[in-house]
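$ ./design --mode recover --in tokens.txt
reading tokens...
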């Protein structure tokens, strides 16, 4: 197994608070009070669970600490799994666990499972071949106009489904000023790169100073138009979104943030507050969800999640098919599950709540969008489409020549009649929308539109 330090030549210690094997609090399930907003001098109180540094210091990292939080819930293999894939759970995120077993989505995403040791041959450490596309260590240049910068290897919580397990948590270190200079030199001679994604690990686990170092360096390159940050902090460590941090971030606009909510149980008062602060600072927010068996592979759960995101001003951006990374076999779903979810969403929720379902292709092929089939047939003159209800319509191409058209679906009508232009629509048996239309017509409702 390849486990290397991204920043090995000039390693600098993670500027954030390092995890010590400190004792978790004696209460088994700590309540997480919201960030102490009355703390007028803004000096973090190291004993305050509402302070992000306290949360990082008190992460659950060992089986002994885990046992204190969830007595009787740890597997005898926990230590073996942790040695392979590290564990870290913020007390805040642990407090969202409702049942301490794998039927709980938060538990399943945070707590190491013996199932992670299942290792079929088609799984690997670097399923997207990112290491092959790194002109500077820690910077992936795959698409022409954008790069992905691994700014730190640390996360506050190590997701069991992480696609960068080879990097995240292997060592906890952040990019050094020297490595950052190499990145900047590369960007200066590659002005085609206009979009830089700061990722990791979780870049918002870095100190305010380190974040500012990275952002100001990127902004010093005139060809960099957009900076994006990929972070799970609003989900697993929402108290990290402090006023001080937001004041730094908003100096570097246009700055976009993509976060990573996977389940409606992650939407809490605190995460809402974190997203609100970012949105209020003018930062457009997106969300990337990973489809995970037993966690969110259910159309109604994704619907609830997407509706919740939009209410927080977070636009569902991508719904990812699980990557072929070692340790996640138990989370993989079939691609048809994602297609089924997309089928369910279209027409049922607004377009702003619908993410793009993507498969990030092996061999570094990048993201491939996958949709249900909406194109039913084609001819030189017409394309036959269907909508979410099963209504079939044809779209006359610019070259279409009029043929005698029968606009109803009565008689011998099939897809060929649509494709050849003889029929323009085949409607399903009366549904809610058609009935409403008929009701309106009979009440002559449209007349009111233009009357005083
Ligand atoms: C996902 C990704 C991007 C960004 O892709 P978008 O579709 O623009 O969000 C860029 N580089 C790499 C290596 C990626 O994996
Ligand atoms: S926050 Fe992102 S990088 Fe970190 S463990 Fe989770 S998925 Fe991986």
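writing sequence...
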């Amino acid at each position: 197994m390849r486990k290397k330090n991204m920043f090995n030549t000039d390693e600098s210690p993670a500027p954030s608070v390092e995890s010590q094997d400190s004792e978790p609090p004696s209460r088994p399930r700590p309540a997480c009070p919201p960030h102490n907003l009355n703390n007028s001098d803004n000096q973090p109180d190291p004993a305050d669970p509402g302070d992000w540094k306290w949360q990082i210091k008190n992460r659950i990292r060992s089986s002994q600490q885990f046992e204190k939080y969830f007595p009787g819930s740890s597997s005898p293999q926990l230590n073996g799994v942790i040695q392979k894939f590290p564990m870290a759970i913020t007390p805040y995120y642990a407090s969202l666990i409702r049942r301490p077993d794998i039927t709980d989505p938060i538990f399943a995403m945070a707590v190491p499972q013996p199932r992670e040791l299942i290792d079929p041959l088609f799984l690997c450490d670097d399923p997207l071949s990112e290491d092959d596309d790194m002109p500077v260590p820690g910077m992936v240049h795959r698409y022409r106009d954008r790069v992905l910068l691994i700014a730190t290897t640390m996360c506050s919580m190590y997701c069991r489904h992480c696609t960068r397990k080879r990097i995240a948590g292997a060592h906890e270190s952040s990019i050094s000023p020297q490595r950052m200079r190499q990145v900047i030199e590369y960007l200066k001679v590659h002005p085609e790169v206009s979009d830089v994604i700061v990722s990791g690990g979780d870049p918002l686990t870095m100190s305010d100073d380190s974040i500012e170092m990275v952002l100001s360096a990127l902004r010093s390159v005139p060809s960099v138009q957009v900076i994006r940050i990929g972070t799970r902090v609003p989900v697993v460590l929402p108290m990290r979104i402090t006023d001080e941090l937001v004041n730094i971030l908003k100096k570097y606009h246009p700055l976009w943030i993509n976060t990573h909510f996977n389940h409606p149980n992650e939407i809490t008062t605190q995460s809402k507050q974190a997203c609100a602060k970012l949105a209020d600072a003018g930062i457009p927010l997106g969300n990337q969800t990973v489809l995970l068996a037993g966690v969110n592979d259910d159309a109604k759960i994704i619907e609830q999640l997407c509706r919740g995101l939009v209410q927080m001003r977070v636009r569902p951006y991508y719904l990812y098919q699980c990557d072929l990374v070692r340790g996640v076999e138990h989370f993989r779903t079939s691609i048809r599950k994602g297609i089924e979810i997309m089928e369910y969403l279209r027409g049922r929720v607004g377009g702003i709540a619908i993410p793009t379902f993507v498969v990030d292709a092996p061999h570094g092929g990048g993201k491939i969008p996958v949709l249900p089939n909406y194109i039913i047939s084609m001819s030189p003159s017409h394309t036959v489409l269907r909508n979410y209800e099963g209504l079939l319509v044809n779209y006359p191409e610019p070259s279409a020549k009029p043929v005698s058209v029968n606009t109803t679906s009565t008689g011998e009508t099939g897809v060929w009649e649509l494709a050849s232009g003889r029929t323009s629509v085949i409607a399903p048996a009366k549904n809610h929308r058609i009935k409403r239309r008929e009701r309106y017509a009979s009440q002559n409702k449209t007349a009111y539109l233009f009357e005083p």
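exit 0
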